[in-house]
Amino acid sequence: xxxxxxxxxxxxxxxxxxxxxxxxxxxxxxxxxxxxxxxxxxxxxxxxxxxxxxxxxxxxxxxxxxxxxxxxxxxxxxxxxxxxxxxxxxxxxxxxxxxxxxxxxxxxxxxxxxxxxxxxxxxxxxxxxxxxxxxxxxxxxxxxxxxxxxxxxxxxxxxxxxxxxxxxxxxxxxxxxxxxxxxxxxxxxxxxxxxxxxxxxxxxxxxxxxxxxxxxxxxxxxxxxxxxxxxxxxxxxxxx
Length: 240
Prior knowledge:
It is a single chain. This protein is α+β, with helices and mostly antiparallel strands and 240 residues long. It contains seven helices and nine strands. It folds into two domains: 36 residues, no CATH class; 192 residues, Sandwich (Jelly Rolls). Helix content is 34%, strand content 12%.
């Protein structure tokens, strides 16, 4: 099934069948929408409503939770404060014409951090006094989306012919992020959005799966550690 040209997948169906469907879509279209995700409207709608209320706050209130330093990962990023294209380039790129509110993990893990970089990825979130409902609504949605992300990773494993729990030890406690994104003052701007980013564990080694290589074929990219790679891209995007 397709909606607006993008495949729609009911992930509540048989996981082997869903995994095979996702495998085909990721090899061809590259994008998909999901139904049967189990995220209750009573969790999703309050998170979206309060996100739009934050974006509608006076600039002064939003700046009260701005990042204290350019490389701080969470809080408010004003218009033109970030350049995603710069995260992939070695030279300066134009800034993005958007404003962002960024949330990371709602609490610290019950273990020691691997290094100072991982501690940075668990920096405290910044919450506006002008909108006290933002924190509980987003924390609930963040937790629900983490569960959905883990479920999708299991379905990807099915599609790749791997054990269903293959990715659990690699993505189960990553520094995931939730954002509210707005494009103010533009005539043909995209609609505001609330993307959630499911990240790999900080110390996870990301490399090509052997089953994805043809006999004698070599990977296109060298392995990387997930956390340091992510941190480097973020810092480049904000010019830090």
